[in-house]
Amino acid sequence: MKKLIILGSTGSIGTQSLEVAKKEGYEIVALAAGSNIKLLEQQAREFKPKFVAVGNTALAEELKIKLNDTNIKVLSGSNGICEVARLSADVVINAIVGIAGLRPTLAAIEAKNTIALANKETLVTGGELVNKALKENNVKLLPVDSEHSAIFQSLQGVPSGSVSKILLTASGGPFYGKKKAELVNVTRAEALKHPNWSMGAKITIDSATLMNKGLEVIEAVHLFHVKPDDIEVLVHRQSILHSAVELSDGAVIAQLGTPDMKLPIQYAITYPERAGLCGERLSLTDIGTLTFEKPDYETFRCLPLCIDAIKQGGLKPVAANGANEAAVKLFLEDKIKFLQIAELVEMAISAQKKVDTFTVEDVFEADRAARALVIENK
Ligand code: NAD
Ligand code: MG
Questions:
Q1: What domains lie within the chain, and their CATH numbers?
Q2: Mutation pick for ligand 1 pocket among 17, 37, 203 (CB with most ligand atoms within 8 Å)
Q3: Cα–Cα distance for residue pair 146/41, rounded to 1 Å
Q4: Confidence tier at 138 by pLDDT (50, 70, 90)
Q5: Which of 20, 68, 205, 261 is the most exposed place for a label (fewest CB within 10 A)?
Q6: What span, in angstroms and rounded, lies between the C-alpha atoms of 344 and 327?
């Protein structure tokens, strides 16, 4: 029986991870979340972990009182979440949203825990630091993001050095086919209507701006050690072909499936083994047609901005991510317009100084500066 730690257990990926754990009978060592203590309490009572952690310290105190009829230890703050990430387990699933996931990822690696990573912002902001820590600690990090899981699955048995290109697919989001002029007044509710996937609010907005695909290009650079120019983004409306690799001899290997995150979550836990089916089986005859197009880089500026940020390297991707997190929060509060998200991301990338080397403290300082710039210019 595998032992799991789930960070971000109350979110979209977190709750689906618990569904997989329940189906496979895995033991839950610890759970962590930001603030939803109502759901965290229910999860704690059902899965009986030894520890839970709550990012919000006041809410952690509340949960401590609620759980005082149990033996579950409640930890608090970002230190509490890192402490939980360091406990002994077979796999730590990091399903926290945003840069808040970076320190827990590093903590898990230092404790030599295998990581199943959904939190793409970890690699976008700290890719170099994470790769260095993985090497030093001889730790495995397995992708949960569906595209990266598809690439990882497609690479099984492929000799290193024989990949010529990565084909990264994108659904195109709810505003596919629209031009800038039609996006001026789009609302939060319209942006939250994703055609194929049901996800947390932040990543759903990122899918509407194509920032999500930009973040995923950066994620792929760090996961698969490729150059940004070796990644081709394809708009694939059906979200069936989750991504592919092209090899030196021209063979293209892809992974297909229904749009259901439980498969990539499960594979990151069971790798290299395969477990049973979690959702629906794919029927290609029901789907009928798979289409592929070039993205509209003019309308969806966040994608080329991220590609530019990773090409420039250093802390530019941190600035892009920090500005985006702050701008998406403002958009979800109806405080800025949809197209301002890309404008603010662009501004933050330009404002970030070029550097060659940096520490984890520098990452958080660049993140803070990008967020401050968004607030000043909103
Ligand atoms: P979500 O908003 O549904 O859940 C986020 C989780 O993180 C919640 O449990 C929340 O309590 C926790 N959290 C938020 N801030 C925190 C903090 N400061 N400290 C500790 N915990 C905190 O988000 P989601 O859609 O599940 O996405 C999680 C991550 O997975 C994101 O990085 C996202 O890009 C990535 N991802 C999600 C999907 C998906 O289908 N939802 C697919 C691919 C990748
Ligand atoms: Mg994805």
A1: 3-143 (3.40.50.720), 148-245+279-312 (no CATH)
A2: 203
A3: 29
A4: very high
A5: 68
A6: 7
Residue 11, token pair as written in the block: 């979110």
318: Cβ below 6 Å to ligand 1? no
Residue 185 has pLDDT above 90, yes or no: yes
- Does 12 contact ligand 1 (Cβ within 6 A)? yes
For residues 151 and 220, give the distance between their C-alpha atoms in angstroms, rounded to a whole number: 9
Q: Band of the pLDDT at 195, cuts 50, 70, 90?
A: confident
Distance 11 CA to ligand 1 centre (A): 5
Would you say residue 197 has pLDDT above 90? no
User: Does the C-beta of 305 come closer than 6 Å to ligand 1?
Assistant: no
- Tens of pLDDT, residue by residue over 225-278, are 999 999 999 999 999 999 999 999 999 999 999 999 999 999 999 999 999 998
